[in-house]
Amino acid sequence: MDDAQLRREVLTALQGIAPEVEPATLRGDRPLRDEVDLDSMDWLRFLAALHQRLGVNIPEADYQQLTTLNVLLAYLQRRLAAG
Amino acid sequence: MRADRIDKTPAALRVTPNWPATAEARAAFSWEAEAKGLTGLPGGGLNLAFEAVDRHAAGPLREHVALRLLFRDGCRREVSYGELARLTSRFAGALAGLGVKPGARLFVLCNRGLELYLGVLGGLKAGCVVSPLFSAFGPEPLETRLRLGEGAVLLTSESLYRRKVAAIRDQLPLLKQVLLFDDNGGKVQIPGTHDLRQLMDQAGDDFPVAPTSADSPSLLHFTSGTTGTPKGALHVHGAALTHLVTARYALDLHPDDVFWCTADPGWVTGTSYGILAPLLLGVTSVVDCADFDAVRWYGILRSEKVSVWYTAPTAIRLLIKVGDELARAHKYPALRFVASVGEPLDPEAVWWGQEVLGLPIHDNWWQTETGGIMLANTAAMAIKPGSMGQPLPGIEAAIVHRREDGSLEMLGDEAIGELALRQPWPGMFRAYLGQEERYRRCFAGDWYLSGDLARRDADGYYWFVGRSDDVIKSAGHLIGPFEVESALLEHPAVAEAAVIGKPDPILGETVKAFVSLKGDFTASAELHDGLLAHARRRLGAAVAPKELDILPSLPRTRSGKLMRRLLKARELGLPEGDTSTLENPT
């Protein structure tokens, strides 16, 4: 999956939880949970949606490092590549 | 099968509990004697922040760590009682420098961080009435509370201000001063606001604490009812005694404890126990500035050597969901007492603590209005899993039935009725701001009526049964359906809106909305998402509905009252009960 495609998938999952998100105004280098108003449950639902959409398993131990959208995209790309 | 109680053996108690939980100790208890644990202002009077900070800073605890802040990036900072006294004085001095007078309402909209502590404690030192706001609120709940509370000063971060306050500023003519700080330590330059750090740099290390008394207003906590606007519960500086006594007896805090309260600072637990109570006892508080994360939390319990942990059912259920393996990967030798509040803790979770952490979890009960813990499973007592425990010393509870004429019938063991507390006690609220009638309705004679339905068993343990109204409790936070419905009704497509609490295995309840549409609109997936987006933008993630159904019409009584109860019964597939007053019983 190329980067643009992955970004679209991630944003669609995010909008499923937080439909108010406007991708154009989202800053990829800022903590995602500051950029988008997500409570703890939203965050877990978002990660579950990513798992379902992309088939990528995200272990609990990695949740903490997934701070910004850019970091999340790079992480998912690595996981996808690793199969 | 598991037992219905967890008895405490002497071996299980690593330190002697502060509260022996005996009839003799209860008979000997007096608030007057406990009040000796407070110092009082040098010139007479009582001030919460002086008791929590300054008196320790002037004594042997001067270099003792008051706050251990754990930042999101892994950095940490320890603040001693001496330093906290200096910094809160600077904050109070900054307020005075702006001409802020004692009695002014200071709202604090902060995530966990040092500024939150400076705002609350420094504001109290300056004699302000401090009102903490939940940072996950959207602009609309913030505007409502700032307006009702006649907020004159607001402390918040630059990013929260930009995202949530800037757009409503025009609607708040009474809000004169806005103090901002940059989360990354930079300088703030937004017209119409002040840079907190600059103001504090200009203020002095010493500030004469405002001469408040036990009856002076201190904190304003907003809470929700079924109908109408949020209620601003006003507390007084004298609540220090309730905080002190409950931290000592319900949380069993000892001087060398490391205490961690995970409650959000925007809710009453985050203030009473996240800020004030541990400081009143001079113990060290761990302050985690990050959001919930299971790995991080277990790491904090272990490496910060947390000894007393006060958390909430939703957090415990999230940890359970992650699986025991993670918990068992670590050991927590310092941890000796775990307590929970916010909503009833299910027996499974109490046992999970016992089996996975090696410590049972002590549920307790209180409300915004009570100012502090009222009922608790305490350290020396046997725990009955699923029960909220027994009244603390100094507190008399009863299960009552309110008769039509307003008088009370005292109910016996096992009867379900409303949980009532005999007034007064030091931490009880003194008013709903500007709503005297609503305040009066909370009392019948000597008794405060909690609105919670409960029963008492033959051993004197209290068991939560439900709310006597339609208020939703999600992740331990009260959400008023009216506030959510009002926001939905502001959407041009919505004709009617009703909101219920839908049972949820993690959150207790989630907010579910039902709407019907105005004539020119038809239901679609796009409109559905648009409605959710509208609600989230206005209310914030923590209050907005997680689910929304569009219905042709909503059930109402013939007098026009929304039947939330019926929607809830339908949602849960339960019998619909008495529908004889329904407008269109179909």
TrEMBL record, chain A:
<dbReference type="InterPro" id="IPR036736">
    <property type="entry name" value="ACP-like_sf"/>
</dbReference>
<dbReference type="Pfam" id="PF00550">
    <property type="entry name" value="PP-binding"/>
</dbReference>
<feature type="domain" description="Carrier">
    <location>
        <begin position="1"/>
        <end position="80"/>
    </location>
</feature>
<dbReference type="InterPro" id="IPR009081">
    <property type="entry name" value="PP-bd_ACP"/>
</dbReference>
<protein>
    <submittedName>
        <fullName>Acyl carrier protein</fullName>
    </submittedName>
</protein>
TrEMBL record, chain B:
<keyword id="KW-0007">Acetylation</keyword>
<feature type="domain" description="AMP-binding enzyme C-terminal">
    <location>
        <begin position="483"/>
        <end position="561"/>
    </location>
</feature>
<dbReference type="InterPro" id="IPR045851">
    <property type="entry name" value="AMP-bd_C_sf"/>
</dbReference>
<protein>
    <recommendedName>
        <fullName>acetate--CoA ligase</fullName>
        <ecNumber>6.2.1.1</ecNumber>
    </recommendedName>
</protein>
<keyword id="KW-0067">ATP-binding</keyword>
<dbReference type="GO" id="GO:0005524">
    <property type="term" value="F:ATP binding"/>
</dbReference>
<dbReference type="GO" id="GO:0006085">
    <property type="term" value="P:acetyl-CoA biosynthetic process"/>
</dbReference>
<dbReference type="InterPro" id="IPR000873">
    <property type="entry name" value="AMP-dep_synth/lig_dom"/>
</dbReference>
<dbReference type="GO" id="GO:0005829">
    <property type="term" value="C:cytosol"/>
</dbReference>
<dbReference type="Pfam" id="PF00501">
    <property type="entry name" value="AMP-binding"/>
</dbReference>
<dbReference type="InterPro" id="IPR042099">
    <property type="entry name" value="ANL_N_sf"/>
</dbReference>
<feature type="domain" description="AMP-dependent synthetase/ligase">
    <location>
        <begin position="63"/>
        <end position="433"/>
    </location>
</feature>
<dbReference type="InterPro" id="IPR020845">
    <property type="entry name" value="AMP-binding_CS"/>
</dbReference>
<keyword id="KW-0436">Ligase</keyword>
<dbReference type="Pfam" id="PF13193">
    <property type="entry name" value="AMP-binding_C"/>
</dbReference>
<dbReference type="InterPro" id="IPR025110">
    <property type="entry name" value="AMP-bd_C"/>
</dbReference>
<dbReference type="GO" id="GO:0003987">
    <property type="term" value="F:acetate-CoA ligase activity"/>
</dbReference>
<keyword id="KW-0547">Nucleotide-binding</keyword>
